[in-house]
Structures are given as C-alpha cells and as structure tokens.
Amino acid sequence: MVAKRIIPCLDVKEGRTVKGINFEGLRDVGDAVELGRYYAGEGADELVYLDISATYEGRHTFTELVRKISDNINIPFTVGGGISTIDDASRLLDAGADKISINSAAVQNPGLIDLIANKYGSQFVVLAIDARQTGDVWHITTHGGHHQTDRELFAWAREGQERGAGEILFTSMNHDGTRNGYPCDTFARLSSMLSIPIIASGGAGGVDDIADVLTIGSADAALAASIFHYGEITIHELKQQLHNRQIKVRL
Amino acid sequence: MIAIVDYDTGNLRSVCNAFERIGAEYILTSDPRTIRHADRVLLPGVGEASSAMGKLQERGLAEVVKSLTQPVLGICIGMQLMCRHSEEGNVGCMDIFHVDVRRLRADEGSGVKVPHMGWNEVSGLRSPLFDGVNEGDFFYFVHSFAAGTCHETIAVSENGTRFSAALNAGNFYGTQFHPEKSGRLGEVILRNFMAL
Fold first, then answer.
1. Which residue on chain B is closest to A67 by alpha carbon?
2. N or C terminus: which one in chain B shows less Cβ crowding within 10 Å?
3. What is the pTM assigned to this prediction?
C-alpha cells in the first residue's frame, strides 16, 4: 500500500516565504528554496507552494521561483494561488511544477479542470476545495472563504473527479486555523465516495489530529503549515509518531 | 553523455534537473543519430500511452530505441511504452519487455486509490540498478496503469495488485516510479544507471 503523505504548505509573497521561524541550520526562513530543501531533508513527502502575491510583479517573481525550486528540490511539489487560465497552468508546468492546485477559478469556470487535465493529465491537477458547514450542508466558498456559493461539497468533489482532477485538497473553513482537528466524518465520506486521493488541510493542532484524519477520516495525505513553520513538531518526529501508531509512512 | 529522448510528451525539466544534480552530462534530443551514438539513453514520459506511442512512431524513434545496444532507461510511461501492449488507448508498444500494461483498479473496501500517487515500497530487488537500495525502501509513483510481473521484473510494488516497479531485459531498464522525484534514493538509482 502507498504510504500516507505529510505535506508542508509554504506561503509565498513576492518570491519569499512568509510565516515561520529560523530552524537550526537554516540561514534564511524567507528563502523558499532553502526552506523547501530543509523540509525535504526532514522527510516531507511533497511540498505545496502557495502564491499569495496580489500583484502582477509578484506573480512573475513566483514563476521565477518555481524554476529555482524545480532545479533544487528532488521531491514532488505543487504550486497554487491565482491560477485561473490554462496559460497560467502551462507557464507553471514549463517552470517545472509537478502539479498545480486550482480553487476559486475552478468554481467559477469548472471547464478549466477538464481543459488542464486533458492537456497535461489528471496527475497535474489538484482541485482545492474550501467549504463551510451551515447546519447539515457544506457550502463551497471561494476567495479564501470570503465568498459563499450555492455549490455543495460532495457534489462538487464528485464533479471535480469526473472532470479530471487527480486529487482533492479539502479545507473546512469551520476548522481552518482553529487547531481543533479535522472533520473526520466528512473526510471519510469524501474518501469513500471518490476514487482519487484526498489531502486533508486546515485544523491540525497536533499529532492526534493528523493521525485521526489519516485513519478515521481515511485521508491519503495531510497538509499543514503552522505546526511545522513554528517548529512545534518536526516532520520527522511527526512521521515517527504516526509510524508508532501503525500508520504507514515513509521514514 | 546521456541522450534524453525528447518526443514532445511534456515537461522534461525535472528529469534534466535530476541529471544536473548528480553531475551527469545530458542532451535533450529527438535526432536518431544523436540517440544512437549516446553512451546512455533515457526515455522519459508523461501523459497518455497511445498518444505518446504515436509521437514516438511519428518521429521514427520506436525502431531506433528498440535497436539500441547501450544502457536504456524508461521512466513511467517511457517504461510502459517498452512493454508489449498498453490498455491505455489500446496500443501496441515496443515489445522490449514481454508483459502487458493494464489499468489499476480502485477499491473502496481496501482503500486502494487510482491514480496510484505517492510513495510506495519496492521489494524483490534484483538488479545492479538497485545497488544501495534496501527492500522496503520508498519511491515516488504517479500512474493509473501498470505492467504486470514477469521474469523481467526486477522490483515489485503493490497497489491493490502487485505490479512491476522496475523491469530489465538485456541493456533495457525501466522504472514505473520517478527516480527524479524520489529524493536521495532516486538519485542513487540514476547514479547506478550511469554506472551500468
């Protein structure tokens, strides 16, 4: 069986990583390549770089950065943030990205998933889904949770798979940033409904939460930012503890 | 000098970067003469098997690859094209490895997902290609189709079913996983290939 993956997420603004502390042996926490290499050495299974630049110049810098990451990092990496056209996807593929994640643009224009998947393959397309639960219903949100849509989580996830997404990256806006854990029942339902891998994001407070979403929630991978960036636990320690709980990870 | 066969199957940057990191000289080419005269040949591949096979044939490269006598390594789709037949697009392939490529099946009950994406263990290692690699070491896979196991299998992996993680017949080698994305151990494989 394939191992459960642990994926640190790095936010990038104007070509530099934001958030985080300087780890021992790391000269510059803002250097996205160096930080990525550090995490890869710690045992990260993949990396996600999210461009949070709002400007054209920032986007341009990000593409340059993707090239440098591809030159220097020997594990797979996904890039996301502001990808809204096939040209954006092509540019990042040419720069060396293994996968791209699309979110708001896919909600507005679902055909974008088909377009990118048909051209570059499903393995290249991660559909990132943000949703907020109100009562019993999970509504899809866009633009970082600011905008709520009429779309419902399970229908959208299924549509994403049918249109050619290779993975689903799901974030619960009810849990994101709370550090209270993930909605494991929702992950379990997504996982049993879909044949493609599910990456859990948003809500990890510690090892227990990640272990739960990988077992009870049947998620294939867990993505986290702050618990790694602030050195609360190293990726190696986390994976060792997951291994001790009989969860299959690459050590 | 290693010739990386460029037959328009998408991004070759990560493969080139991997050879650069291990300090190997390479050339990206679709020229039959250059390929024939290289010390080693790498057949990369992403995308869909039947269209990749079509592109290889259009350029007259399928026959060239088959006729090579130096060490040749196919990666992912590149390895699959060296098999007998692929279920993906129902296409006859180069028939260097005497095995067929079939679709992997997702299975909800046992949690088997397709595409098979991520790090998985290899075992049954029997080739100098795996010198320095241990049974149960992990490599990075991304694929929905896989070659079965046969006498040319030099490593197996499992995703619902056992499949060939690597194949070897004479001077031809193939890996289903991506050594260029498999961290330090992936670089060990590429170095071993350069030393064959």
1. B13
2. N
3. 0.94
**Tally of CB atoms within 10 A around A143:** 11
pLDDT tens-place string over residues B99-111: 999 999 988 778 8
Tell me, what's the ipTM? 0.92
What does the alpha-carbon distance between residue B77 and residue B56 come to, in Å, rounded to a whole number? 12
Q: Give contacts of A197 with chain B, Cβ < 8 Å.
A: 113, 115, 117-118
- Tracing tokens 């639960």 back to the chain, one arrives at A133
Nearest to B2 by CA among B10, B18, A130: B18
- Radius of gyration from C-alpha coordinates of chain A: 17
C-beta separation of B30 from B6 below 8 A: yes
- B188 within 8 A of B139, measured Cβ to Cβ: no
**Beta-bridge partner residues of A222:** A6, A200
Give the CA distances from residue A98 to residues A10, A184, B96, B180, in Å, rounded to whole numbers and listed in that order. 16, 28, 29, 11
Q: What is the per-residue pLDDT across A164-201, written as a single tens digit (0 to 9) for each?
A: 999 999 999 999 888 889 999 999 999 999 999 999 99
Q: Pick from B11, B120, B183: which is nearest to A3 by CB? A: B120
